[in-house]
TrEMBL record:
<feature type="transmembrane region" description="Helical">
    <location>
        <begin position="447"/>
        <end position="469"/>
    </location>
</feature>
<keyword id="KW-1133">Transmembrane helix</keyword>
<keyword id="KW-1003">Cell membrane</keyword>
<feature type="transmembrane region" description="Helical">
    <location>
        <begin position="306"/>
        <end position="323"/>
    </location>
</feature>
<feature type="transmembrane region" description="Helical">
    <location>
        <begin position="484"/>
        <end position="502"/>
    </location>
</feature>
<feature type="domain" description="Major facilitator superfamily (MFS) profile">
    <location>
        <begin position="12"/>
        <end position="510"/>
    </location>
</feature>
<feature type="transmembrane region" description="Helical">
    <location>
        <begin position="21"/>
        <end position="42"/>
    </location>
</feature>
<feature type="transmembrane region" description="Helical">
    <location>
        <begin position="117"/>
        <end position="138"/>
    </location>
</feature>
<dbReference type="GO" id="GO:0022857">
    <property type="term" value="F:transmembrane transporter activity"/>
</dbReference>
<feature type="transmembrane region" description="Helical">
    <location>
        <begin position="48"/>
        <end position="71"/>
    </location>
</feature>
<protein>
    <submittedName>
        <fullName>MFS transporter</fullName>
    </submittedName>
</protein>
<keyword id="KW-0812">Transmembrane</keyword>
<feature type="transmembrane region" description="Helical">
    <location>
        <begin position="83"/>
        <end position="105"/>
    </location>
</feature>
<dbReference type="InterPro" id="IPR005829">
    <property type="entry name" value="Sugar_transporter_CS"/>
</dbReference>
<keyword id="KW-0472">Membrane</keyword>
<feature type="transmembrane region" description="Helical">
    <location>
        <begin position="239"/>
        <end position="259"/>
    </location>
</feature>
<dbReference type="Pfam" id="PF00083">
    <property type="entry name" value="Sugar_tr"/>
</dbReference>
């Protein structure tokens, strides 16, 4: 009997995880390609503004997730878990595929960013309904006392989705020339998703409804108005707010710091070559992913609270030293230049506006194997540097190729951050499921999760990058650390609230 039960839960895990992983893949492709997308769908006149606009569009997908949680959560509590997250899967897959089909800004002008924005909103709505459905579905199949372990498999899907997105991008880059990838190859990862979505849909189509929900529906105990019962009931609302401010808010910023901000930081602040960053992050994610299961299992033994709070506290205390070490590891100012190998080439080129650019290309090599490429483009007007806001219009693009020793140092530092993520994220699904009763569970748990992750977490790359750019322009020598204040403050507030008000094992509030 035990073997049959275990076989059934593995079937549930496999079907739920595959679909959720694909939805995260779809969602993360945009973030993983943010640097490239900023040159395709936004005006190229100001690369920094275009990149910030891309991050803001990326963040919009997170901001609308709570609305998806409300809409699909209500459907999930009325109609059922299975059919609701089948709809979210198709919505996500369709939106992702269409992003890969949108013509560039040069072709259709401002319609390009508008269409991207609309499709990102649809992705956010779909993801807002997906996670709560998958986590609830698995938890309601899992034996009581083992929910942390079984739901932690769902927790791995976001990281696996990011990992696969990085590997697909890396594979596409390696199969194509840089020119081909820049011209059309970046669209391939978006197109690939439609195939995976189709396969996942066929698998999910054959799944049964959650036995707990099916029983409640048969007995007429489902909610007729999940939104009112979830948020209009003061007793339940108290737990919704506690889940948000005491857990998911902090968990959200630690998640996005350890993965997305780490990636953005290496590409834009440290200027490491893009495919190298994808490889480093991919290795760290591969090494760290099993720890979601470890901490999910451990939470069944010692409780959810102290594992989640411990992850937040360690992250808060460690972020600045970790990012200082990351920056110092590849900072060429700390390396010995091979002067004889330094080359500087100057040339004039006609730009897209039929004016001229003066381009200075500098190549440097260092004794430890690091190479440095800087391309400085000065826009000319009547043979002189164009003046914008009282300054010459100069665009500088820097690319650093790091050596093997630095690669493994960075993998270790990212892996440590992924461990923080697994501590706060591994137990969170079981923690949320156990806070709310069956009839309003989908709705009640989805909202705090997606506000915490979608708004507090999703805004992190844009806010932190903005803080770094501002600090750099102000001449702050430690500008690269300023973006960390956002996750440190948010996680700090969540840690204090969680420690004060969350009970480690409150059986009275643990629902079937």
């Amino acid at each position: 009997m035990k073997e049959k039960s275990t076989k059934r839960i593995w079937k549930v895990i496999s079907a739920s995880s595959m679909g959720t992983m694909i939805e995260w893949y779809d969602f993360y492709i945009f973030g993983s390609l943010a640097v490239v997308i900023s040159t395709k769908f936004f005006p190229a006149d100001n690369p920094t503004a275009a990149f910030l606009a891309t991050l803001a569009t990326f963040a919009v997908g997170f901001v609308v997730r709570p609305f998806g949680a409300l809409f699909f959560g209500r459907l999930g509590d009325i109609i059922g878990r299975k059919y609701t997250f089948m709809v979210t899967l198709l919505l996500m897959g369709g939106a992702t595929f269409l992003i890969g089909c949108i013509p560039s800004y040069e072709t259709i002008g401002f319609m390009a960013p508008v269409l991207v924005l609309i499709l990102r909103m649809l992705q956010g709505l779909a993801l807002g309904g997906e996670y709560g459905g998958a986590a609830t579905y698995v938890a309601e199949h899992a034996p009581v006392g083992e929910r942390g372990y079984w739901t932690s498999w769902i927790q791995t899907t976001a990281t696996v989705g990011l990992f696969i997105s990085l590997m697909v991008i890396l594979g596409t880059r390696n199969l194509l020339t840089p020119e081909e990838f820049d011209l059309w190859g970046w669209r391939v990862p978006f197109w690939v998703s439609i195939i995976m979505v189709g396969v996942s849909y066929m698998i999910r189509k054959n799944m049964d409804e959650s036995p707990v929900f099916a029983k409640a529906k048969e007995e007429g105990k489902t909610s007729k108005n999940p939104l009112a019962e979830s948020f209009g009931n003061r007793y339940n609302l108290k737990f919704v707010l506690l889940a948000l401010f005491g857990a998911t808010m902090g968990q959200g910023v630690i998640w996005y710091t350890g993965q997305f901000y780490a990636m953005s930081f290496m590409k834009t602040v440290m200027s490491i070559e893009s495919s190298q960053v994808d490889t480093l992050l991919g290795i760290a994610l591969l090494l760290g992913t099993p720890f979601f299961i470890v901490f999910g299992w451990l939470s069944d033994k010692v409780g959810r609270k102290y594992i989640m709070m411990g992850g937040m506290l360690i992250a808060i205390l460690s972020y600045r030293p970790i990012y200082q070490k990351m920056y110092d590891t590849t900072d060429v100012k700390n390396k010995i230049e091979i002067v004889d190998k330094t080359t500087i080439v100057a040339e004039l080129k006609e730009n897209k506006k039929l004016a001229m650019d003066s381009i200075y290309t500098t190549n440097k090599a260092y004794t430890d194997g690091t190479t440095f490429l800087e391309i400085k483009t000065v826009s000319l007007e009547n043979g002189k540097a164009m003046i914008v806001d009282g300054k010459p219009k100069v665009e500088t693009k820097t690319t650093v190729n790091i050596n093997d020793s630095d690669k493994w140092s960075l993998v270790l530092l990212i892996f440590i951050q992924v461990l923080f993520v697994t501590m706060v994220y591994g137990p969170i699904a079981a923690f949320l499921v156990e806070m709310f009763p069956v009839k309003i569970r989908y709705t009640s748990m989805s909202l705090p999760y997606h506000v915490g992750n979608g708004i507090f977490g999703g805004l992190l790359p844009a806010i932190s990058t903005y803080l770094v750019i501002n600090a750099k322009e102000a001449g702050d020598l430690n500008f690269f650390l300023e973006g960390l204040w956002y996750p440190i403050i948010i996680a700090g507030a969540s840690f204090v609230i969680g420690m004060m008000y969350i009970k480690n094992k409150d059986k009275k509030n643990t629902h079937v």
